[in-house]
Amino acid sequence: MLKEERFEVILRELASRRKVKFEELAVLLAVSEDTIRRDIDLLYRNGLLSKTRGGAMLREKDPLTFQDRQSFLTKEKDIIALKVQPFLKDGMTLFVDGGTTTWAVVNAMPLDIRIRMVTNNFSIVPLLEKFKNVELIFLGGNFEPDLAVTSGITTCMEVAKYNADIFIMGTCAVDPELGVSATSAADGETKKMMVQCAKKTIALASQNKLYQGELFRVCPIDSLTALITDLDSNDSELNPFRNMDLQIV
Protein backbone atom coordinates (compact mmCIF):
# COMPACT_ATOMS: atom_id res chain seq x y z
CA MET A 1 0.00 0.00 0.00
CA LEU A 2 1.31 3.44 -0.92
CA LYS A 3 1.93 6.07 1.76
CA GLU A 4 -0.80 8.29 0.34
CA GLU A 5 -3.27 5.38 0.56
CA ARG A 6 -2.35 4.87 4.22
CA PHE A 7 -2.99 8.56 4.86
CA GLU A 8 -6.48 8.22 3.39
CA VAL A 9 -7.25 5.24 5.62
CA ILE A 10 -5.93 6.98 8.75
CA LEU A 11 -7.97 10.12 8.09
CA ARG A 12 -11.06 8.06 7.27
CA GLU A 13 -10.70 6.15 10.55
CA LEU A 14 -10.34 9.43 12.44
CA ALA A 15 -13.41 10.88 10.73
CA SER A 16 -15.54 7.93 11.84
CA ARG A 17 -14.00 7.21 15.27
CA ARG A 18 -12.37 10.56 16.21
CA LYS A 19 -9.50 8.75 18.00
CA VAL A 20 -7.16 5.94 16.92
CA LYS A 21 -4.24 3.99 18.40
CA PHE A 22 -0.92 3.18 16.72
CA GLU A 23 -1.33 -0.56 17.24
CA GLU A 24 -4.86 -0.58 15.80
CA LEU A 25 -3.74 1.22 12.65
CA ALA A 26 -0.70 -1.05 12.31
CA VAL A 27 -2.97 -4.13 12.29
CA LEU A 28 -5.49 -2.51 9.95
CA LEU A 29 -2.83 -1.44 7.45
CA ALA A 30 -0.50 -4.44 7.92
CA VAL A 31 2.55 -2.27 8.62
CA SER A 32 4.79 -1.67 11.64
CA GLU A 33 3.91 0.75 14.43
CA ASP A 34 7.04 2.74 13.51
CA THR A 35 5.59 3.27 10.04
CA ILE A 36 2.31 4.43 11.56
CA ARG A 37 4.16 6.84 13.87
CA ARG A 38 5.94 8.38 10.88
CA ASP A 39 2.63 8.71 9.02
CA ILE A 40 0.98 10.34 12.04
CA ASP A 41 3.94 12.73 12.42
CA LEU A 42 3.62 13.87 8.82
CA LEU A 43 -0.15 14.32 9.03
CA TYR A 44 0.31 16.21 12.30
CA ARG A 45 2.88 18.58 10.77
CA ASN A 46 0.36 19.34 8.03
CA GLY A 47 -2.30 20.23 10.59
CA LEU A 48 -4.61 17.32 9.75
CA LEU A 49 -4.77 15.71 13.21
CA SER A 50 -3.67 16.07 16.82
CA LYS A 51 -1.27 13.66 18.50
CA THR A 52 -2.25 11.79 21.63
CA ARG A 53 -0.38 9.37 23.84
CA GLY A 54 -0.10 6.23 21.72
CA GLY A 55 -2.12 7.51 18.80
CA ALA A 56 -3.96 10.44 17.28
CA MET A 57 -7.29 12.22 17.41
CA LEU A 58 -9.33 14.30 15.02
CA ARG A 59 -8.32 17.95 15.09
CA GLU A 60 -11.15 20.44 15.32
CA LYS A 61 -11.02 22.86 12.40
CA ASP A 62 -11.70 25.84 14.63
CA PRO A 63 -11.23 26.29 18.39
CA LEU A 64 -14.40 26.75 20.42
CA THR A 65 -15.30 30.30 21.28
CA PHE A 66 -14.51 31.61 24.74
CA GLN A 67 -18.22 31.55 25.60
CA ASP A 68 -18.50 27.89 24.54
CA ARG A 69 -15.48 26.87 26.61
CA GLN A 70 -16.49 28.80 29.72
CA SER A 71 -19.29 26.33 30.49
CA PHE A 72 -17.09 23.28 29.79
CA LEU A 73 -15.37 21.34 32.63
CA THR A 74 -16.16 24.03 35.20
CA LYS A 75 -15.50 21.76 38.20
CA GLU A 76 -12.07 20.80 36.86
CA LYS A 77 -11.17 24.44 36.23
CA ASP A 78 -12.20 25.39 39.77
CA ILE A 79 -9.92 22.65 41.18
CA ILE A 80 -6.99 23.98 39.15
CA ALA A 81 -7.79 27.57 40.16
CA LEU A 82 -7.60 26.71 43.86
CA LYS A 83 -4.32 24.84 43.38
CA VAL A 84 -2.75 27.93 41.82
CA GLN A 85 -3.50 30.26 44.74
CA PRO A 86 -0.54 29.26 47.02
CA PHE A 87 1.84 30.34 44.24
CA LEU A 88 0.48 33.90 44.23
CA LYS A 89 2.16 36.31 46.66
CA ASP A 90 1.74 40.00 47.38
CA GLY A 91 4.08 42.19 45.37
CA MET A 92 4.37 39.82 42.42
CA THR A 93 4.08 40.72 38.75
CA LEU A 94 2.11 38.09 36.84
CA PHE A 95 1.64 37.30 33.18
CA VAL A 96 -1.83 35.84 32.65
CA ASP A 97 -2.79 34.78 29.15
CA GLY A 98 -6.07 33.79 27.52
CA GLY A 99 -8.43 31.00 28.43
CA THR A 100 -11.28 30.05 30.70
CA THR A 101 -9.00 28.30 33.21
CA THR A 102 -6.96 31.46 33.75
CA TRP A 103 -10.28 33.30 34.16
CA ALA A 104 -11.14 30.85 36.97
CA VAL A 105 -7.73 31.47 38.59
CA VAL A 106 -8.29 35.23 38.71
CA ASN A 107 -11.84 34.80 39.96
CA ALA A 108 -10.57 32.68 42.89
CA MET A 109 -7.87 35.13 44.06
CA PRO A 110 -8.14 36.64 47.57
CA LEU A 111 -9.86 40.01 47.41
CA ASP A 112 -7.02 41.74 49.29
CA ILE A 113 -4.16 40.40 47.15
CA ARG A 114 -1.62 43.02 46.03
CA ILE A 115 -0.20 42.17 42.62
CA ARG A 116 0.51 43.61 39.19
CA MET A 117 -1.19 41.68 36.38
CA VAL A 118 0.01 41.90 32.78
CA THR A 119 -2.51 40.23 30.48
CA ASN A 120 -3.95 39.92 26.99
CA ASN A 121 -7.09 38.21 28.34
CA PHE A 122 -9.98 40.61 27.83
CA SER A 123 -12.41 38.39 29.75
CA ILE A 124 -10.68 38.91 33.10
CA VAL A 125 -10.81 42.71 32.96
CA PRO A 126 -14.37 42.94 34.41
CA LEU A 127 -13.35 40.57 37.22
CA LEU A 128 -10.67 42.95 38.44
CA GLU A 129 -13.21 45.54 39.55
CA LYS A 130 -13.58 43.65 42.84
CA PHE A 131 -9.80 43.65 43.49
CA LYS A 132 -8.83 47.05 44.89
CA ASN A 133 -5.09 46.32 45.09
CA VAL A 134 -4.47 44.78 41.66
CA GLU A 135 -2.68 46.91 39.08
CA LEU A 136 -3.78 45.96 35.57
CA ILE A 137 -1.56 46.32 32.51
CA PHE A 138 -3.51 45.28 29.42
CA LEU A 139 -1.52 44.31 26.35
CA GLY A 140 -2.45 45.86 23.02
CA GLY A 141 -2.63 44.01 19.72
CA ASN A 142 -5.14 42.47 17.35
CA PHE A 143 -8.31 41.52 19.21
CA GLU A 144 -9.58 37.98 18.59
CA PRO A 145 -13.24 37.94 19.72
CA ASP A 146 -13.63 34.14 19.66
CA LEU A 147 -10.70 33.75 22.07
CA ALA A 148 -11.25 37.04 23.94
CA VAL A 149 -7.54 37.90 23.67
CA THR A 150 -5.20 40.27 21.90
CA SER A 151 -2.38 38.74 19.88
CA GLY A 152 0.09 39.40 17.10
CA ILE A 153 3.38 41.28 16.75
CA THR A 154 2.19 44.25 18.82
CA THR A 155 1.19 41.99 21.71
CA CYS A 156 4.55 40.20 21.68
CA MET A 157 6.41 43.53 21.63
CA GLU A 158 4.33 44.70 24.59
CA VAL A 159 5.11 41.50 26.53
CA ALA A 160 8.84 42.04 25.95
CA LYS A 161 8.71 45.30 27.94
CA TYR A 162 8.08 43.47 31.22
CA ASN A 163 9.73 41.02 33.59
CA ALA A 164 7.24 38.80 35.43
CA ASP A 165 7.70 36.67 38.52
CA ILE A 166 5.27 34.03 37.26
CA PHE A 167 3.50 33.29 33.99
CA ILE A 168 0.12 31.62 34.60
CA MET A 169 -0.34 29.84 31.28
CA GLY A 170 -3.56 28.37 29.96
CA THR A 171 -2.85 25.48 27.60
CA CYS A 172 -4.35 23.77 24.57
CA ALA A 173 -2.18 20.65 24.76
CA VAL A 174 0.60 19.31 27.02
CA ASP A 175 2.70 16.22 26.33
CA PRO A 176 5.98 14.95 27.89
CA GLU A 177 7.63 14.67 24.47
CA LEU A 178 5.87 17.38 22.45
CA GLY A 179 5.84 19.92 25.26
CA VAL A 180 3.21 22.66 25.30
CA SER A 181 1.54 23.41 21.96
CA ALA A 182 -1.21 25.70 20.71
CA THR A 183 -3.95 25.62 18.08
CA SER A 184 -3.27 29.21 16.95
CA ALA A 185 0.06 30.53 15.70
CA ALA A 186 -0.59 34.01 17.13
CA ASP A 187 -1.59 32.62 20.53
CA GLY A 188 1.44 30.34 20.51
CA GLU A 189 3.80 33.25 19.86
CA THR A 190 2.30 35.26 22.73
CA LYS A 191 2.73 32.33 25.11
CA LYS A 192 6.29 31.77 23.90
CA MET A 193 7.22 35.40 24.60
CA MET A 194 5.66 35.26 28.08
CA VAL A 195 7.68 32.13 28.88
CA GLN A 196 10.86 33.96 27.86
CA CYS A 197 10.07 37.03 29.97
CA ALA A 198 8.94 35.27 33.18
CA LYS A 199 11.12 33.85 35.95
CA LYS A 200 8.75 30.90 36.38
CA THR A 201 6.03 29.39 34.20
CA ILE A 202 3.08 27.44 35.58
CA ALA A 203 1.08 25.48 33.00
CA LEU A 204 -2.59 24.78 33.69
CA ALA A 205 -4.06 21.67 32.07
CA SER A 206 -7.26 19.78 32.76
CA GLN A 207 -7.04 16.04 32.15
CA ASN A 208 -8.39 16.33 28.60
CA LYS A 209 -5.40 18.53 27.61
CA LEU A 210 -2.78 15.96 28.66
CA TYR A 211 -0.98 13.78 26.10
CA GLN A 212 -2.28 15.97 23.31
CA GLY A 213 -0.35 17.74 20.58
CA GLU A 214 -1.30 20.74 18.49
CA LEU A 215 0.39 22.24 15.46
CA PHE A 216 2.17 25.25 16.97
CA ARG A 217 4.97 24.57 19.44
CA VAL A 218 5.15 26.83 22.50
CA CYS A 219 7.86 25.38 24.75
CA PRO A 220 9.37 22.09 25.96
CA ILE A 221 8.36 20.69 29.34
CA ASP A 222 11.72 21.69 30.85
CA SER A 223 10.71 25.35 30.41
CA LEU A 224 7.95 24.85 32.99
CA THR A 225 8.28 25.29 36.74
CA ALA A 226 5.04 23.50 37.57
CA LEU A 227 2.19 21.61 35.93
CA ILE A 228 -1.17 22.03 37.63
CA THR A 229 -4.02 19.68 36.68
CA ASP A 230 -7.40 18.69 38.08
CA LEU A 231 -6.00 15.24 38.93
CA ASP A 232 -4.57 14.25 42.30
CA SER A 233 -0.83 14.94 42.17
CA ASN A 234 -0.15 11.24 42.89
CA ASP A 235 -2.40 9.97 40.09
CA SER A 236 -0.62 7.39 37.91
CA GLU A 237 -1.87 9.24 34.82
CA LEU A 238 0.84 11.82 35.55
CA ASN A 239 3.70 9.31 35.84
CA PRO A 240 5.31 10.16 32.46
CA PHE A 241 5.94 13.69 33.77
CA ARG A 242 7.61 12.56 37.01
CA ASN A 243 11.13 12.02 35.68
CA MET A 244 11.29 15.67 34.63
CA ASP A 245 12.46 18.64 36.67
CA LEU A 246 8.89 19.74 37.21
CA GLN A 247 6.60 20.31 40.17
CA ILE A 248 3.33 18.42 39.70
CA VAL A 249 0.37 19.83 41.61
What tags apply to this protein structure?
249 residues, 8 helices, 2 domains, 32% helix, four-stranded antiparallel β-sheet, Rossmann fold, 25% strand, alpha/beta
Molecular structure report:
One of its GO terms (molecular function) is DNA-binding transcription factor activity. With about 250 residues, the protein is an alpha/beta fold. It folds into 2 domains: about 5-60, Winged helix-like DNA-binding domain superfamily/Winged helix DNA-binding domain (Arc Repressor Mutant, subunit A, Orthogonal Bundle), CATH 1.10.10.10; about 65-249, Translation initiation factor eif-2b, domain 2 (Rossmann fold), CATH 3.40.50.10470. Helices cover about 30% and strands about 25% of the residues. The protein is built from 8 helices and 16 strands. The chain has helices at about 5-15, 20-30, 35-45, 65-70, 75-85, 100-105, 155-160, 185-195; strands at about 20, 50, 55-60, 95, 115-120, 135-140, 140-145, 150, 165-170, 175, 180, 200-205, 210-215, 215-220, 225-230, 245-249. It has a 7-stranded parallel sheet. Strands 1-3-2-13 form a 4-stranded antiparallel sheet. Helix 2 packs across helix 3 and helix 5 packs across helix 6 (about 100-105). The longest helix has 15 residues, at about 5-15. The mean pLDDT is about 90.
